[in-house]
From TrEMBL:
This is ABC-type D-xylose/L-arabinose transporter. Belongs to the ABC transporter superfamily. Carbohydrate uptake transporter-1 (CUT1) (TC 3.A.1.1) family. Part of the ABC transporter complex XacGHIJK involved in the uptake of xylose and arabinose. Responsible for energy coupling to the transport system. One of its GO terms (molecular function) is ATP hydrolysis activity. One of its GO terms (biological process) is carbohydrate transport. Residues 4-237 form the ABC transporter domain. NCBIfam families: PRK11650.1. It comes from the Archaea. It comes from Natronoarchaeum philippinense. It catalyses: D-xylose(out) + ATP + H2O = D-xylose(in) + ADP + phosphate + H(+); L-arabinose(out) + ATP + H2O = L-arabinose(in) + ADP + phosphate + H(+). GO terms for cellular component: ATP-binding cassette (ABC) transporter complex, substrate-binding subunit-containing. The complex is composed of two ATP-binding proteins (XacJ and XacK), two transmembrane proteins (XacH and XacI) and a solute-binding protein (XacG). Pfam families: ABC_tran, TOBE_2.
Length: 367
């Protein structure tokens, strides 16, 4: 087992015209399970491939434990990578696929190799499949074999590149638990890349969010969810997405009125709230962020509620999503027994402590 340290990592393609990873620094302690998430093209796979030694960094350093592995060949790094497309050898049996890495990278004898493969196969529940070829297996079974092949080597680091993306939703949930169970059992430092923010949130001890090759934020899932550092993170993490409204702040009775720039929206921040801020926000424009689950219907109109029209009601079983007419996309996630008709007028409110105010220029959370 080992920690991983990444210092100012950079990867350019096409003579520098594409910057896939830009000045990325991370410290991953021994035994941690980190998920890396971000939209397509943000540099997740490139980062993982540099850690595995499959891609050469343009600049920066990678350490596994105390060892600088930046220029060390993939086969000499003690890491095992699991790929989305399984990367099994089609002409080899499951046993041979699992044994291959041991043959190549260790001087272990055949008896010990067989024992290791059998143990890993038992752990993954695939003992019955050892003499099958990959094309005789289902997607889920193939991924179990790929995981078995990774654990058989007992590496210092596991790297997962969207390993569940080709599986159906139900199997994905089962395999998530399986991977977490393995990681708990072995305690191996693991980096798991996914574009699915829900997967990243549920699996990671810590989540790393990338956009455009750059680190946006890293922290425990709950911390990132509750305190996004910028508008990108606020919008990317959470489903349905955080609502954003352009507002103008004006001083009012010791507090601040936030007025919608594009629609009929008004909300009053109390004087206590405003006094707790470390800057005077009156006179400025912001992007207000509020999560759909924090918006609730109320019967008592006040300066902390707003009246709007329900455009569409979207039932999702346990909750209803109300799509509202406030000049920009805006959703309230309410209990399933709140069932207004499309076109109904509704009074809604939220707690001022759930508000985020982002700078419209930089996207940074200013509070
Ligand atoms: P996805 O979720 O779609 O797999 P990603 O976050 O893993 O995306 P990367 O595959 O790391 O993103 O790609 C980051 C950027 O680098 C993208 O702009 C991509 O087009 C570019 N890129 C990746 N590999 C190469 C390559 N071999 N040659 C040129 N550009 C590349």
């Amino acid at each position: 087992m080992a920690s991983i340290t990444v210092e100012n990592l950079r990867k350019e393609y096409d003579a520098g015209s594409i910057v896939a990873v830009d000045d990325l620094s991370l410290e991953i302690p021994d035994g941690e399970f980190v998920t890396v998430v971000g939209p397509s093209g943000c540099g997740k796979t490139t980062t993982l491939r540099m850690l595995a030694g499959l891609e050469r960094a343009t600049d920066g350093k990678i350490y596994i434990g105390d060892e600088d592995v930046t220029d060390i060949h993939a086969k000499n790094r003690d890491v095992a990578m699991v790929f989305q497309n399984y990367a099994l050898y089609p002409h080899k049996t499951v046993f041979e696929n699992m044994e291959f890495g041991l043959r190549m990278s260790t001087d272990m004898g055949p008896d010990e190799r067989r024992e290791r493969v059998r143990d890993a196969a038992e752990m993954m529940g695939i003992e019955e499949l050892l003499s099958d070829k990959p094309d005789e297996l289902s997607g889920g079974q193939k991924q179990r074999v790929a995981l078995g092949r990774a654990i058989v080597r007992e590496p210092e680091v596991f790297l997962f590149d969207e390993p569940l993306s080709n599986l159906d939703a139900k199997l994905r949930t089962t395999m998530r638990t399986e991977i977490q169970r393995l990681q708990n059992q072995f305690g191996v430092t693991s980096i798991y890349v996914t574009h699915d923010q829900e997967e990243a949130m549920t699996m990671g001890d810590r989540i790393v969010i990338l956009n455009d090759g750059k680190l946006q934020q890293t922290g425990a899932p709950k911390e990132v969810y509750e305190n996004p550092v910028n508008e990108f993170v606020g919008g990317f993490i959470g489903s349905p997405s955080m609502n954003f409204l352009e507002v103008e702040a004006t001083a009012s009775g010791g507090g601040i009125d936030l007025t919608g720039v594009n629609g009929n929206f008004q909300y009053h921040l109390s004087s206590e709230y405003v006094q707790g801020l470390d800057q005077d926000i009156s006179g400025s424009r912001f992007t207000l962020g509020i999560r759909p689950e924090n918006v609730y219907p109320t019967n008592a109109a006040s300066n902390k509620s707003f009246t709007t029209t329900v455009e569409v009601i979207e039932p999702v079983g346990s909750d209803n999503y109300l799509h509202l007419d406030v000049g920009e996309d805006f959703i309230a996630r309410v209990d399933a027994d709140v069932e207004p008709e499309d076109g109904d007028s509704i009074e809604l409110s939220f707690d001022e402590h759930h508000i985020h105010l982002f700078s419209p220029d930089t996207g940074v959370d200013v509070l």
